[in-house]
């Protein structure tokens, strides 16, 4: 059971009949088989906080059948209320319950797609019977729409919306870091990452999820091995720079990455509507010269400092769309859609948490969406942002070399490099954000402690 749930006893799944729970109220109220309209009556002490006195049934009033360890349930014709304990009730609309039936007729057991026709569900649908069972809430729908649905208690808790009981997916597992991470940067070995049992891959991507980056040591210094390593995560995202890139300072592509110039801390693809999720780099060789060290900055760490010390500047970066372009290839002219672009700092519309940093001052287009009084506050904000990004506290400089690759979350980590001389050969790849998150989700399913079954349940919290 994931943290943040109402702590139902483990036994709810297998309904032992012996363990009374202090402060919990587990009774069941079963609608009479015969009547489609009688409503359960609950002892007033157990009535859901805001429920009105339920209308008396036309026959005898129902005394709840008290049974061990099952939630109390009640219906009022529009909703079903579930009493998890004396203080915690959830209410589910009938139409919501019918729409979310996941029996094989309503929800494809293999494709996990809805089969029930949402739009044939009467807006005033009401159950003919509700029952609290060891397996979950059992709902019998009226003879006009004969059907029986069963909803596991844990699924109902996870998806309770009135009130919301689960902890929103939060970034609590993110570990923000400064330049001090150089003492012990997250690393996996190539053997771990390539191991067929996927345990090393799970470790690798868990590091990326927590730190936003991870080194991979012991990588054969070839583009082939590096490409194979990249593909362990998912298919490579092809762009105007090609699929798997193997590049040097020859302007083979119209971008300063293909020069010897220094590149300040940036995220890639600000000119795409959907910037790539991960970016892997592996320095294959550097001869007859020096420089070309790699810069990594945790954009979430720097944003947390900005928010704390300069909240006004943070808000400017959170609300000001920034246009960008990639126009160095005659065959391509990229701008995000809409072309006004996206803010430097993007937030989850539900939790309000920072979810993406987009920053590349070199690729930024004309700021032509500011009105007069916004111009100076914009420049003041990016000056503060730049100052924090380039502070010794934020900058983690590392010299890559053949055999050690690094992968970064391009939605969080900024990267760059110092100028260099000589012949420098870098290879790597982009992985889409959805491919990365999907692989991580599959690995979490595979290695999660309570995943007793191999196949993906229709009740998976991810669906
Ligand atoms: C393909 N490779 C990674 C070598 C180059 C990427 C181009 C970098 C571009 N200025 C951006 O910020 O997205
Ligand atoms: O050459 C490097 O080390 C990094 C180049 C870069 O920043 C990029 O390709 O996005």
UniProtKB/TrEMBL annotation:
The GO annotation for biological process reads: carnitine biosynthetic process
Q: Where is this region: Disordered?
A: 40-60
- Which Enzyme Commission number(s) are on file for it? 1.14.11.8
Listed Pfam families: GBBH-like_N, TauD
Q: Which keywords does this Swiss-Prot/TrEMBL entry list?
A: Carnitine biosynthesis, Dioxygenase, Iron, Metal-binding, Oxidoreductase
Q: Domain (TauD/TfdA-like): give its ranges.
A: 181-430
Pathway(s) annotated for this protein in UniProt: Amine and polyamine biosynthesis; carnitine biosynthesis
Domain Gamma-butyrobetaine hydroxylase-like N-terminal: start-end pairs = 74-156
| Reactions catalysed, as given in the entry | N(6),N(6),N(6)-trimethyl-L-lysine + 2-oxoglutarate + O2 = (3S)-3-hydroxy-N(6),N(6),N(6)-trimethyl-L-lysine + succinate + CO2
Query: Could you give one GO CC term from the UniProt record?
Result: mitochondrion
The signal peptide annotation in the UniProt record is: none
Superkingdom per UniProt: Eukaryota
Identify the enzyme class: oxidoreductase
* One MF term in the entry's GO annotations: iron ion binding
What's the cofactor? Fe(2+); L-ascorbate
What NCBIfam families does the record tag this protein with? carnitine_TMLD (TIGR02410)
What does the UniProt record say this protein does? Answer: Converts trimethyllysine (TML) into hydroxytrimethyllysine (HTML).
Give the family from UniProt.
Belongs to the gamma-BBH/TMLD family.
Q: What is this protein called?
A: trimethyllysine dioxygenase
- Specify the species: Favolaschia claudopus
Q: In the record, what lineage is assigned to the organism producing the protein?
A: Eukaryota, Fungi, Dikarya, Basidiomycota, Agaricomycotina
